[in-house]
Amino acid sequence: MATSRIILTLAICTAGIASLAQEISYPEEFNEPMALFPEAMGDFHFPISSKSPLAQQYFDQGFQLMYSFTPEDAARSFREAQVADPDCAVCYWGEAWSWGSYLNGAMTTTNAPRAYFAMQEALARIDKASAKEADMIRALQVRYVEDFDPETRRVQDQAYADAMAKLAAKYPEDLDLNTLYADALFLLEERRGYRDINDPNVIRLHAQLLSVLDKDILHPGACHLLVHATESTTKPELAAPCARFLGNSIPGASHINHMPSHTWNEMGLWHDAVRANTLAWQSDQKAAFGLGFAIYPTHNLTMLYYAASMGGESAAAIQAAKDLAKLSRNPSMHALALIRFGRFEEVAELGEAPAGDVDRSMFEFARGYAALKLDDLPTARSTLTTLEQTTATTKARFRFHDGKDIVGTLAGILKGEIAWTEGNVEAAAEAFRVATSYYDNLNYDEPEPLPFSPRHWLGSAYLALGAYDNALAEYRRDLQEHPHNIWSLFGVQQALAMKGEKDPVTARDLEEASTYADIWMRDTKY
């Protein structure tokens, strides 16, 4: 890797800093100029003391890209600001910020020297900075040390949060500095898992972000963080007011387009989630033409296929899964989408199974389930044997989950369907209960690893057995976990009808949930 063209360009360095620069490598893209992307950017503006309009434009772009979780492109933008104004201390602050930890990635040993060097460059020019810029530089300085050790990173992160607390208090009207304080607090929390809404740290984080959004509901950085800070709590709707605007705040940044879907999924606003991720996928594609930034495209497609599956939008779900298979060279989720919507004949056309215990099991489950529905019971039985063996032996992980819980869920569903085909609905219900027990072991994730719940099968079995209250309990439990999903709403309505009862609230909810669905339902499974 070559050192950046900007380091080679700038000669305003001390001998020590220049020596350090020669030891640092950068991605190859840093040898090429970074363009401005006015069509992709929003109207964000953070005024700096530079007299160069071009430096200001690149600084604003870099800031927005950091809010979009695009750190390397942000660093390149801040580098171009440095080229436009070599004396711009805060432009080096921006690059140093870019190389540090952010919510989706801790600072690495590769990035640490880059961050430290950029900070030294900022300090070398601090006398030319405004008072606020100098405060920003000094606050960030505590985050970077020359001999970075990932094991002790929290020491610097805590010092940085403490420094940002003082900076936010000194500049209460500066919404960006107050957002960066919230970001520093967030970095001290566990990134994954459920959050207790009553935890003092969670309360403090939410209050800090809401204090920004109370003054500017359109703030992209604060809203982005609030979505993440609320999605795994019992109050995801706290982010809904700003999420309505977030997706278009940085139009060409696909991660920003996508972010509202985390809130919409948790609230059960499935079509809104579909639209958010469709917009994100469009930005991912625009990136090839210099009109957008592709940020986590496979995640955008996975969220799209998941939300559309829960909302009964089969065309959107299957197309997203097909695009995902093409992008990732992994057909497992395409296979599951076809099963979700009963397109069994198409499963055989998907080619070879992917590698890895979990992905392969998803694919094999789809093959075995489709075979069963096409009257090939031996293949279904053989597949079940393989899935049960994998459940018992696998040590694989899938994102944040034990692989056995995903494979066990699928094995239980297939076992239940085989029993049902053979006329033993009691055995089917028992198998679906086992599937549900595995499913309930899964951790919080967005999106979840499966585009359906085994309760859609278990509820259906209870209906067939005449256990209507049990069916209602399963469907309502599923609606607690996946609000307004069309499958369990339909199940509740069916169970009530079999009991000779009606619920106008459920009927209205199902009617609204069906607005964008393109399927005809006669059961909660195919």
Description:
- There is one protein chain.
- The chain is an all-alpha fold and 526 residues long.
- The chain is 62% helix and 1% strand.
- The protein contains 26 helices and 2 strands.
- It has helices spanning 5-9, 15-22, 53-67, 71-84, 89-99, 111-124, 131-141, 153-170, 175-186, 200-213, 220-230, 240-246, 254-258, 260-267, 270-286, 297-311, 314-328, 332-340, 357-373, 377-393, 403-421, 425-439, 455-465, 468-481, 486-498, 504-513, and strands at 397-398, 401-402.
- It has a two-stranded antiparallel sheet with strand order 1-2.
- A hairpin with a 2-residue loop joins β1 (397-398) and β2.
- It is elongated and about 80 Å long.
Give keywords.
single chain; two-stranded antiparallel ribbon; disordered N terminus
Task: Give the topology.
Blueprint lengths: L4 H5 L5 H8 L30 H15 L3 H14 L4 H11 L11 H14 L6 H11 L11 H18 L4 H12 L13 H14 L6 H11 L9 H7 L7 H5 L1 H8 L2 H17 L10 H15 L2 H15 L3 H9 L16 H17 L3 H17 L3 E2 L2 E2 H19 L3 H15 L15 H11 L2 H14 L4 H13 L5 H10 L13
Antiparallel strand pairs: 1-2
Helix pairs in contact: 3-4, 3-5, 4-5, 5-6, 5-7, 6-7, 7-8, 8-9, 9-10, 9-11, 10-11, 11-12, 12-14, 14-15, 15-16, 16-17, 17-18, 18-19, 19-20, 19-21, 20-21, 21-22, 22-23, 23-24, 23-25, 24-25, 25-26
